[in-house]
Amino acid sequence: MATRNTAVFPISDVETFKRSLRAWAQVFPVAIYLDSNHTESLPSGSDTSTLPYWRQTRWECLLGVGAADAVSAEIGTAFSQLRHFYDQHCDWLFGFLSYDLKNEIERLHSRHPDHIALPDLYFFRPEVVIGIRAEDVVGPKGFRVDIHTLTTTPEAVWQDVQSCAPGKASSAGIALRPRMSRQYYLEAVAALREHIAAGDVYEVNLCQEFYAQGVRIDPLGVFEQLNARTRAPFSAFLRWHDRYVLCASPERFLAKQGQYLFSQPIKGTRRRLADPEADTRLRESLRDSAKDRAENAMIVDLVRNDLARHCLPGSVVVEELFGIYTFPTVHQMISTVSGVLAPEEHPIAALRDAFPMGSMTGAPKIRAMELIEQYECTRRGLYSGAIGYCSPEGDFDFNVVIRSLLYRADTGYLSAQVGGAIVFDSQPEEEYEECLVKLEALQKSLKA
């Protein structure tokens, strides 16, 4: 395996450099850009120097472009192929996991149409990796750029990015229409409440698709619009040939730092309001909501069980329960669960057995996924899957693919799926309104 060339460069204007970086990256057939947007899911004014490990991040953003080597796998042996690829390359790996890998993990199926058609699993070893991180001793504002290359020099990449004009936000004037009728969605929520009352399941994450056909968009321009609007801590711009994912996710699926694993499930959403007092009241209503706490607690228990399968006995703990975090467009209820990976356990096995994330299924997980297949109308694909990276040290970090636009350039198909947790106390009209809240930033980024 070739050794990477590495160099470090100081920068002062982080946001301008990021836009140049994204503009430079978009021409590569395979590229994944990950951005924490200076937030890392923190409340305003937080002192990051005192935060525990699970709140900190080494990277402000990371980019991998060009596939020196890759694994593309369909359902059947996808995770075993990923494990072999991970063991073979002690190097940077970037990639994604589709929700439909559930069919490999459990005896399930996906029969709905998939108009985006990405691989079920894809990981690549990038030709170039670029990361921005804070470092007090480098640069006027304490940020540095780390460039790691295989076949070219970091200095040449640095010059290419510096000379690339920053990408500009653009819109497409496109209105998305629902795949489900409003009446069908309301009836599906009512039916799921009956399943819950019968004891079939405690909670189900029901999603619906909004879409457009035969449209043309500038994927990077729309991502710039979306990213500027949301500033989400687990944002991603993904290009896989003629497929694109424009992701404004606020949620971490699973991360590994050393032997620690941690997950930060989200359950509970309120829209932001322009009036500060009204906005504060809405935030407090989320904090005090018994329904949202119940939804969140169920998923926390599920995540604890998933992590305990591969962590040292007694090491799985809830670091934070029902934390309320504010982002530019929404308030979210976020909990954090961590554990210590047992020395004999493989990291990819832990990743596999926590997937799909409980926040996007419900509990118990298998029955919830069966009901999702029964009542939804679109195959989820990469939506409610994960995008992320593995480092040369063997660490990894993956988001939850929500609040995202998926686009297939050759057919002009554009898709956005949104949803929420259904429990017995759910009111169909309120659940439909929550879907529209989550769709709002996506739709405005297309129409602004």
Description:
By secondary structure, the chain is of the alpha+beta class. The protein has a single domain (5-159, 167-447), classed as Anthranilate synthase, CATH 3.60.120.10. It contains eleven helices and 20 strands. It has helices at residues 14-25, 78-88, 102-105, 154-162, 182-197, 219-230, 276-288, 290-308, 347-353, 365-375, 428-447, and strands at residues 5-11, 30-35, 61-73, 93-97, 121-134, 143-149, 177-178, 203-212, 234-240, 243-249, 252-257, 260-264, 266-271, 317-326, 330-340, 362-363, 386-390, 396-399, 404-408, 413-422. It has a 20-stranded antiparallel beta sheet that branches. The longest helix is centred in the C-terminal third of the chain and has 20 residues, at 428-447. The radius of gyration is 21 Å and the shape is globular.
